[in-house]
Amino acid sequence: VILLTLPIAILLQLCNGGVVIQNGASTSSQMVIFYLQNISNDNCSAKWITDVLIYNHQIENWVYQTSFTHGTIYGDKYIWDCSELESQIANCSFYLPISIKLGTNQPPTGDPMHLMNVIQDFNDSSSFTTTCDLCTSGTQTCESPVATSEPDEISTESISTTSTEDSYKYLSYAVIAVFAVVAVAGFIDAKFVRQNDFFNLAAIFSAMIQISDMFSDVFFAATAWEHYKLHDEH
Hints:
Layout: H1 2-14, E1 20-23, E2 31-37, E3 49-56, E4 61-64, E5 67-72, E6 75-81, E7 98-104, E8 113-119, E9 127-129, E10 140-143, H2 153-193, H3 201-233
Parallel strand pairs: 8-10
Antiparallel strand pairs: 1-2, 1-9, 2-6, 3-4, 3-7, 5-6, 7-8
Helix pairs in contact: 2-3
């Protein structure tokens, strides 16, 4: 039934203005698949599109597709496969809603197009119409409603763990910086200001290691507690 009705739906969508995103079969948070539609007419061309990227909340940046196929019966097909993105994104996953960025060489300046929060679900039959038109010059941003679905267990755990790891990383940098300043100041004071033959850099280094070890234990306990609370809630 889907194979019979999809071409008709596409034909109806192409009569409307604005770029259309059509979900592909088997699209998911681990492999985003969609078709780019309604991007060509007598006044503009799909060849103007140079890059297609989607936003990943884990790394807070735009990600290029892992593969694409131009000119299929349903439009240009783009795929983001997490199994091929693990080197860029640890524990790769794409959370709804998904935003899309189109890079163009549209005359005269090649302005980009931002389709914000456009993909609202991972249903194979879903399509999303936007008001952004490739034929319109200038940078365009089309904002769609934010999805109301709550993040799943894996998403919440990943974000929480990442936040704790970032806090530990920044605290470690601060500890190293403080002890570096103390070591340099103490060395200058002991050698050039007030002579002190008992000054020992190794003692300061040892104290830094012990304090860093204490903080690592504290953050490990915090991470374990967050993990426990998360699974207890679910």
